[in-house]
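Supplementary notes for students who missed Thursday's class. We covered one full example, reproduced here. Read the sequence, then the structure, then the short commentary at the end.
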Amino acid sequence: MKTAVIIFNPKAGDEQGSTIGSLLEERLNDAFDRVVLMETTGSGDAAEFAYEACQTSTHSIFVIGGDGTVNEVIEGMTRSGLSGPKPILGVLPGGTFNAVARNLSIPLNPRRAIKLMDLNRVTKIDIGRCNKKAFGFIFSIGDVPESVHSVTNEDKTKFAMLAYFVNIAKHASKNSIYNLQLDVDGKKIEGDYSHLVILLGGHIGDIEFTDKKIRNDDGYLHLFLLKEADFWSRLSVITDLIGRQIEANESVQYYAAKTIRISSTMPDVATDIDGDLGDVLPVEVRVLPKALTVYTLREEGSYLLEV
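Structure (token representation):
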């Protein structure tokens, strides 16, 4: 029996998660013998639901929610101890940023995403882990992610991306500096930095910010370190970001690695994973190469399932 599990956050999609879940169920009924809906009620539910689904003969897991819910599902699907082939993952956007959905070229309107969903086209993607937490796109340290954490859930629902931009603008005058010690695949690095960013891909949707061949299935973490910088130096970074030359900026150091350990002499340095608060330092970040097979609308690097 071909089974699909839908894990949904009822607050997803402007608190329309239940409605979106029902629409997806209708869409999947023609392709699967059995469709099971599982509603999250609190933190950790999505991870447990996904882990349980991986222990049965579930064919596909679909998640409706923001990056936090998506990462919980990814965490449950990539826990140690699981054996055999994993279910295929389907991501339906229901949050504010929707990093994983953007990188799979999935429409950000969940109803449109359901309508256009291709259940025959898949790709394999790398997954990142920070200690025990999984992420699908970005790990970071700095003023920008800290400003994102101060956005309330109420403001996220009411104002979506505008709430993030307002808070980032409030923190624009800050220039916090972090003394960091890093072990990058055995290479020791120490210095003062304003931002640290680790990426699993070199683009957000169709927007690329580096001409390096960074892919979300290349088996590497891509580390960018922004040195202590004044306003004009930071402005040049933004210009190079737009011009796909971020790694060429003299204020930026770039490394590709499998495992990155980060610590600091400073207390309580917070981290960010896909827009949500991560662990305080020290942390170990590692890549799980091609850990999951996912449904995608992006033709590049994808393939068709055998019928």
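Commentary. Residues 155-169 have pLDDT under 50 and may be disordered. The two ends are 15 Å apart (CA to CA). If anything here is unclear, bring it to office hours.
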